[in-house]
Design goal:
Layout: H1 18-27, H2 30-51, H3 77-94, E1 101-102, H4 104-120, H5 132-138, E2 143-153, H6 161-173, H7 176-182, E3 189-196, E4 203-212, E5 217-223, E6 229-233, E7 236-240, E8 244-250, E9 256-260, E10 269-273, E11 280-286, E12 290-296
Parallel strand pairs: 1-3, 5-11
Antiparallel strand pairs: 2-4, 3-4, 5-8, 6-7, 6-9, 9-10, 11-12
Helix pairs in contact: 3-6
Length: 300
């Protein structure tokens, strides 16, 4: 019999010519007519099967655009953001760093920029004409350190919530610049947002890191000698007149390099200071060694 699950080949001798079909059908025996009906039914079913074969949804379209994920499989942007924060903190702990806390203002700045990137399908840190520091300040975050990671992901079959978050985090961890931001030991807070482009279907993520202005390192240097004191911070050199003081504020814990004259006949020495917030340093004349540095806590 010809009734099979799949028709691969039909003998040509069994297919009647269209012009003779009606003539032969009138002269066929009842048994022959039943066989012809069954054969035609099988041929029709084969044609229908070809018309309903689906296409591979993982293949890109001709335009290269990303098709949208179905609503059932679409990730939840807020849950993606939460998972990004959790994984980032786990990564920081793994590297011996403290975790970063979620900040409302950084979150608002990240949300605005993620929406902007998604609406415009662009990916630069100044896509809206402003740097990350401007956006942080605009949304009420008074900062002394700001860092930002951005990225997009998209594919026709979409992502689950966990998969999308994992891909964002993995991409940043494997990029030296983004990894540096994730492991910045001086940042204390973060804000993350994810948005979907209505045009391309891509998902855009913005991860902001910050250190609030209230956590600046403020310290004072006082020169109680009769000579000009020379020192440098972050490659910039300062000269401090005798019996004067100067207060510095830095977003990151600085290294202060003091140039101190030694006792008569000895070469000058260099002393490295690593001030904490509120520290003070007093440089005094010491006949025995030339100059000495006295440390005062909470002097600012």
């Amino acid at each position: 019999m010809f009734l099979t699950n799949r028709i691969r080949w039909v003998p040509s001798s069994l297919i009647p010519r269209p012009s003779s079909l009606w003539y032969k059908s009138k002269r066929m025996s009842p048994r022959d007519r039943i066989q012809w009906v069954l054969l035609l039914a099988v041929l029709v079913s084969a044609v229908v099967a070809v018309q309903t074969v689906g296409h591979d949804t993982d293949q890109p379209g001709a335009s290269g655009s990303q098709a949208a994920a179905s609503p059932a499989s679409a990730p939840n942007p807020s849950k993606v953001a939460t998972r990004i924060i959790d994984q980032t903190n786990a990564f920081r702990q793994q590297e011996g760093l403290q975790t970063v806390a979620l900040d409302e203002h950084l979150g608002q700045a990240a949300h605005y920029f993620a929406q902007y990137l998604a609406q415009t399908d662009t990916l630069t840190h100044t896509a809206d004409g402003n740097p990350p520091s401007y956006r942080a300040k605009k949304y009420g975050y008074a900062h002394c350190v700001i860092a930002e990671n951005i990225a997009y992901r998209g594919r026709p079959r979409g992502y689950s919530t966990s998969e999308l978050a994992d891909r964002f985090v993995a991409g940043w961890k494997n990029s030296p610049g983004h990894r540096k931001n994730m492991l910045d030991q001086d940042v204390l807070e973060t804000g993350v947002a994810v948005a979907r482009s209505p045009t391309s279907g891509r998902y855009y993520a913005v991860q902001m890191f910050g250190r609030p202005r209230s956590e600046r390192i403020v310290f004072k240097i006082t020169n109680q000698t009769a000579s000009v004191l020379t020192y440098s911070i972050g490659g910039k050199t300062y000269a401090l007149s005798p019996h004067h003081s100067r207060t510095h504020a830095r977003g990151r814990p600085p290294a202060v390099e003091l140039k101190l004259a030694s006792a008569a006949g000895a070469p000058a020495t260099t002393k490295i200071l690593r001030p904490a917030n509120g520290m003070g340093y007093v440089v005094q004349r010491d006949p025995a060694v030339g100059y000495s540095v006295k440390t005062k806590s909470k002097s600012v």
